[in-house]
TrEMBL record:
Name of the protein in its database record: ATP synthase F(1) complex subunit gamma, mitochondrial
Membership in a protein family: Belongs to the ATPase gamma chain family.
Location within or outside the cell: Membrane
GO cellular component: proton-transporting ATP synthase complex
Record-linked InterPro entries: ATP_synth_F1_ATPase_gsu, ATP_synth_F1_gsu, ATP_synth_F1_gsu_CS
Chief location category: membrane
Keyword Membrane: yes
One term of GO molecular function: proton-transporting ATP synthase activity, rotational mechanism
Function recorded in the entry: Subunit gamma, of the mitochondrial membrane ATP synthase complex (F(1)F(0) ATP synthase or Complex V) that produces ATP from ADP in the presence of a proton gradient across the membrane which is generated by electron transport complexes of the respiratory chain. ATP synthase complex consist of a soluble F(1) head domain - the catalytic core - and a membrane F(1) domain - the membrane proton channel. These two domains are linked by a central stalk rotating inside the F(1) region and a stationary peripheral stalk.
UniProt keyword annotation of NADP present: no
Length: 79
C-alpha cells in the first residue's frame, strides 16, 4: 500500500516541479528581455543626446560667428 501511494505521489510531484520550473524560466526570460530592452533604450537615448548636443553646439557656434562678423563689419564701416 505504501508503494502504491508513492507511485501516485511521484507523478504529481513531478508535474508540480515541472510546472514550477517552467514558470520560473518564463519569468526569468521575461525579466531578461526587459533588461535587454531597457539597456538598448538607454544606449539609444545616450546616442540621441550626443547628436542633439553636437547639433546645438554647431548652431550656437554659427550664431556667435555671425555676431562677430557683424561687429567686425560695423567697426570697419566706422573707419
Amino acid at each position: 500500500m505504501t508503494s502504491m501511494l508513492m507511485c501516485c505521489r511521484i507523478p504529481r510531484n513531478s508535474l508540480a516541479n515541472i510546472t514550477y520550473y517552467s514558470l520560473k524560466e518564463s519569468i526569468t526570460s521575461k525579466k531578461c528581455s526587459r533588461m535587454t530592452a531597457m539597456g538598448n533604450a538607454g544606449k539609444n537615448a545616450s546616442d540621441m543626446i550626443d547628436k542633439l548636443t553636437l547639433m546645438f553646439n554647431c548652431i550656437h557656434q554659427d550664431v556667435i560667428t555671425k555676431e562677430l562678423i557683424e561687429i567686425m563689419s560695423g567697426a570697419a564701416a566706422l573707419e
